[in-house]
Amino acid sequence: MEDFQSAYQEEKARLDRTLEDIERQLLALRSIPVYTGHDFTEQLLEESRQLQRDQLERSFREPYFGRLDFSEKGKPRTPYYIGKMGVGDPEGKEPIVIDWRAPLASLFYSFTGGDSASYEAPEGLIEGLVYLKRNVVIRKGILERVADTYNQDSEGPAVSDEFLVYRLGENKDNRLRDIVSTIQAEQDLIIRAAKNTALIIQGVAGSGKTTVALHRLAYLLYQYKEQITAERMIIFAPNLMFIDYISEVLPELGVGDIQQSTFSDWGAKILGLESPPSDGPGALTRWFDVSDTERQVVGDDKLSGRFKGSMEFKAILDTFLENIESCCVPSLDFEPWEGTRLSHAEILQWFEGEYRHYPVARRKERVLSRIHRWIEMELKKSPSLAVLKERKKKAQLREKAYAKKWPELEPVAIYQELFQAKKGANTGFPDMSESIPASIFKESQAYLKKKMLKEEDLAALLYLFTCINEIEGNMTFDHVVIDEAQDFSPFQVAVLDRFVKGHSFTILGDLSQGIHYYKGVRSWDEMSRLFQPEETGYFALTRSYRSTMEIIEFANEILKRGVGADLLAVPVFRSGDPVRLQSAAGDQREASISQALATALSGSYRTAALLTRTLQEAKQLYEYLIGEGVEAHLIDGDKGQYAGGISVLPVYLSKGLEFDAVIMTDVDTSHYGPNDAKLLYVGCTRALHELWLLHGDSLPTYIATDNSEIVITSHPTLP
Ligand SMILES: Nc1ncnc2c1ncn2[C@@H]1O[C@H](COP(=O)(O)OP(=O)(O)OP(=O)(O)O)[C@@H](O)[C@H]1O
């Protein structure tokens, strides 16, 4: 206790000094009049001062979160304070606060005990001794808590999880948060991995994949500030609501302007489509609202989404495109009017010789405009104005007709050809119908004829785009993050690779959460095979930080029994209530749901989710709750914003999100079939503190009842 008191006093004194320093710097900056003139250099200086002012104001509220006492070999023990942003010392001495991304700060995360410690700095490996790792909680400039996670002088465990457990026990508000003060060693390795690698990360539910990816972006921007910019980085997320849910982490880390998009939205923009291809209203519902046996009757290779996402399909497109060059230039001379002629051989020489280095669509464009210029030159040779007029008229018509003889070098048009080209058709393209499963060929042909596109066609269309067009500088990326990557296809990643410099990817996902059977990958090898071994790195995150031990053990059991999975989560030692299994059949259903909700929210929890099996059930339940006066929000996949509070949603839309309490409804064999274990796993792992499973008569066999509490309740009272 005495130790704690003196540590608190020591930190309080240090905080006071730091705040005084920051205030002094702020006052000095504020005393410089804001420049509003037109001088460019002055404007840049003003911008930089404004940034400094903003950063100091933020630092003033929470200057740092950690302290590390370290002595570099041969040097004395020095306390370093680590914050979300570095704070320099105007007098030019050591910085007052070190940025969490700085090399020295990496020790704060990677040190797990032992007699020596080292970190990689630009000047080489720095070795020394760690004496103390201390977490300091400061809110609005007030010191709230001091907790040592390592103290060389004490006899406790090497590095304790106590502070982490305290942080994890806090209730969450609407949005994902930064974790700078408690990044774990295995997460830090990913955050600080080198830029030019395709990192593939398999992480169990709640292992911090999304959070780590966002911190990695902040790190890359700090570490490679000369080479990369925020505007040229992108996060691909499953939907707009998820983007909204994660929207506060990057600004909190002082990073702005990173692009965030779904693959469809991005692809549609590149292709210049009016709107992203959609599989029609309710596509997800059609897939998830059917029984799982109906879903499983189609073999993998017959699922068009999986086929069109495969590298096999890419190879088919390559063959299809192989002779695109040879079939481009129409095999005839061009004659704008009688007696004047441009030979096929000469046009071919322009196309295959002079413009060889351009992509094929650009070559076509160049050749056609050169023909246009040639016509204009020839017209000038006309003997009279009348002849010139007549030739001009003729030439215009013939030029148009000639251009039409060239194949349309546009991704959608070529793609349509792929599903039209049958033997004997005179398109110049080969017949690929034999290589594509007949059912997929037929179905695609039918909807493409109606000028429709599906999401599953996007990778191929984008690939065609890159084969025939130049990828312009403003389309390229310095780094790409793919979240929920188990739902991405190898072909999608291969296409993206064409837009990314140096294969700089962070690809994160969890195979155990692969509930979109009709797309995505079954193994990470499918992704790593796209890169050379030296270009890729693989990490596995097995510790789960989101849920209590009880919830994780319960969810693990579902995976073990349901899919025999070996990717099980290891919980952090944070104990909570047992998972509650409650019978809620027939006319008891609604009342039981209300009861569970009332109980779950009777404490201090701020967010709760009611997860139904289908969208239809979510809508009905939402209506019921609204009728009962409960302020609930329906999540139906159409909205771009996440409101927090009480959410009602079908389980498949809950991926990526988390809630203090989760109540799953209708968890019985009539709703969850033998192949729905992963779906149930996703739902259960959304809960931070409390999990309820309300069920009918027969529980699916993959649910273990031994460690759960069976609840019998009465007197429902809604919040
Ligand atoms: N080192 C950490 N310190 C504190 N909290 C952490 C840490 N790592 C992760 N968390 C918390 O764990 C929760 C899960 O994180 P996140 O959503 O990033 O995980 P995920 O692996 O993407 O999950 P899922 O795949 O289940 O959607 C979040 O509340 C996050 O703040």
From TrEMBL:
This is DNA helicase UvrD. Residues 1-32 form a coiled coil. GO terms for biological process: recombinational repair. Residues 182-548 form the UvrD-like helicase ATP-binding domain. InterPro entries: DNA_helicase_UvrD/REP, P-loop_NTPase, UvrD-like_ATP-bd, UvrD-like_helicase_C. One of its GO terms (molecular function) is hydrolase activity. It comes from Paenibacillus anaericanus. Keywords: ATP-binding, Coiled coil, Helicase, Hydrolase, Nucleotide-binding. The keyword ATP-binding applies.
